[in-house]
Amino acid sequence: MAKGASISGFPEWLPSERVVEQRVIDTLRRVFELNGFLGIETRAVETGASLLKKGETSKEIYLLSRLQEVGHESDTPLNDRLGLHFDLTVPLSRYVVEHSGDLAFPFKRWQIQKVWRGERPQEGRFREFVQADIDVIGQGDLPDHYEVELPLVMVSALERLREFGLPKATVHANNRKLSEGFYRGLGLTDIEGVLREIDKLDKIGADEVAKLLVEGCGADESQARACLELAELTASDGKELAERFDALCAKHGIGTDGDAYQLARQGLDTLAMIVDQAAAIRPGSVIADLKIARGLDYYTGSVYETFLDGAASLGSICSGGRYDNLASQGSRKYPGVGLSIGLSRLVSYMLHTAGARANRVSPAAVLVAVWNEADRTAANRIADTLRSRGIAADVAPTAAKLGKQIKYADKLGIPYVWFPAADAGEDGQAAGDEVKNIVTGDQVPADAKSWEPDTVYARQEVTIQGVKEA
Amino acid sequence: MAKGASISGFPEWLPSERVVEQRVIDTLRRVFELNGFLGIETRAVETGASLLKKGETSKEIYLLSRLQEVGHESDTPLNDRLGLHFDLTVPLSRYVVEHSGDLAFPFKRWQIQKVWRGERPQEGRFREFVQADIDVIGQGDLPDHYEVELPLVMVSALERLREFGLPKATVHANNRKLSEGFYRGLGLTDIEGVLREIDKLDKIGADEVAKLLVEGCGADESQARACLELAELTASDGKELAERFDALCAKHGIGTDGDAYQLARQGLDTLAMIVDQAAAIRPGSVIADLKIARGLDYYTGSVYETFLDGAASLGSICSGGRYDNLASQGSRKYPGVGLSIGLSRLVSYMLHTAGARANRVSPAAVLVAVWNEADRTAANRIADTLRSRGIAADVAPTAAKLGKQIKYADKLGIPYVWFPAADAGEDGQAAGDEVKNIVTGDQVPADAKSWEPDTVYARQEVTIQGVKEA
């Protein structure tokens, strides 16, 4: 995106930037597979009925129409039209129900795919972007240990990206039952409304949120302030969490024997389990943070957001939660828990803030020079020999002056230029081949059947080449 | 697609089938990178103006509209609306012009991405599918050796898929200039029309094509028959090709001194070069086949289609050609040559006809058993130790009876079940761990820090498990 996308909100990377994105994708996939997640891909479209069912982003949908239908789009009812998926969770739920007979449950899957949001164009918002998701879906029930394990898989995946310039990531967890119980204990009833306003805290600040709670959610000033006090509560272990929460309940007159407190307590116990278990396995990776609300209304228990050290303005780069009611088949439910990395935004941060760079644009380690066009077949044979040994090789586009061929290699970041012997025969293996490292200037005799590039120059790598901006 | 796609034309694979598709994608990418192609991804959308410019598939476009625009779609002129790309060549041309200052030319790129065709639903036609493309784009000019090399890269890529059940692939090449020169030599002028009808030869047969040439392209009976004779011409070397072509010209009174013959000769020389050079590097991989026309009207020279031995009904699985006029910037042209594999159709063939199968559904080689929920953390530690050594591991979902845990492993194809020692401590490494190969029944003592799975069972692989249908 060196020059910005030519259609606002539809980012595109230059080849050198794509190397970084591809490395991020490969790294995440590797971690997901090491953890036993199955890879799937769902179609890009869902029916209007499915897309409009759940979630606040349901307003931000791209609908499709065939060119032939232009002018007659409205002949098809909205529910029957096709639209592009806005996340990977709604498609997963549909996929699981559709193929339940062919899946082993609990079904653990990873999915890295593009999603689309049909928003009005606005600065810095992507309308097409890649998400990297892991979810586990149970048939009938789903053990709560996955509510600890899935955030930890994401933490270990993000940990692997730190060598490419990503700061340390911390998962901030909350539980909807805890929030709901507390709000009900205060006497509030518009739970969805309160959660939606609390979710705006980082964007508009406490005073604005308090105003919205009073104006739109039936709260009085004191109830609104209590909601904000809950949102300020953080804890890094279960005992601390329970103590602070109970103190807050006592302060606001929420009795421990009421239904509201019991509901909150369910959420609190799960949240305490999550932070304590996570601390045992990866200390400092997960904290309880009771302002986490999540806009999407399909979450029913745990919710997560993930922040990078020193990158608060970036917002959450990995979010998710537990959803017990998203998918069902007759009376059978398919509860799930999952997290999603906003990969495009993460890659944008790595490129433009963290200074991640590819060591070379081309995957080729070697450019085979061509002395004149009659020798091209011999040059191709040398390249093929290198390739058969796993060494990526390109061949000079024309038999231009050697300086021009070296310049082409240099522009692509290809570290080695191969000089075929002038008398190369049928097998392209005449004695007299030489290879030059154009970074160091070293030039040595070489045989394509046995030569190995220096390990420093062998692989296309992503490194941090300095922070460009704060 | 065990049960067929739930929306016609939008295929989706089961996890075990996705393993095969992912392996095909990984294999193609590997070959493309070994050959020095740069990977890019373009946005899924282009403007109407760009999509409607070229190509017969321009009629098969999905246009987008935001949910809020429903009922007002027609307020936006067609050229300004967004639509999903129907191939990866039109987006590449736009990308190259847009980013020309940041690219090294000739620009060699691979791209594996979904495309969409807004067709009426019909049996067996995909409306969403994955294409795997390689192209090389020059700035100003492009050497013709790429017209040999690109089909050969595709041949070597398809060769790597033979171990997964794909039959041998042969590229059938033609040249538009050759056809055009011949048609003009006969006195025909509607060249696009003739090419379009000849392209239908395999589908509707010679008699029907002759009829269409007479009815719609201004040909008389004898001209139509001459066009069909040209389409019957095949050759596996340049000399044979030239002799047969010249004989045909003589028979139909096309003089070698006319402009028409000279144009045909240009095409013939390039085509002869292609088959001869290809024969020198990979004998039998490319033949001249003068019935190859290609529907898309952006091709200006070489055109290719690729057929699998014994799978004629599948049609071409890898097609492309040279296009000199698709992209330009002022007076500067960006000529290109490229080929595209219809990956979804290929994977469908491999799964349903060639019998390609994953040896296991889960990427995990090991399932760590859990004796009771209190021991889960120890089981997780064992799994983490294996993962840190590159061994993919899953952990049993519940502390169910051992038989049930083994059944879960078996259903996912996980070959090893790990039994933690009952007294596993903090590091999960207590003496007494054992691991059982549930395929062979072998059970041995094991330490997660040093144990290695048998190579036969270590990796998730794709193999041929017998042809299911003809």
TrEMBL record, chains A, B:
Superkingdom to which the source organism belongs: Bacteria
Root EC class: ligase
GO biological process: histidyl-tRNA aminoacylation
Keyword Transport: no
Chief localization: cytoplasm
Keywords: Aminoacyl-tRNA synthetase, ATP-binding, Cytoplasm, Ligase, Nucleotide-binding, Protein biosynthesis
Pfam families documented for this protein: HGTP_anticodon, tRNA-synt_His
Chain sites annotated for binding L-histidine: D87, L88, T89, R117, Q131, D135, R294, Y298, Y299
EC number: 6.1.1.21
Protein name: Histidine--tRNA ligase
Species of the source: Bifidobacterium leontopitheci
Designated gene of the protein: hisS
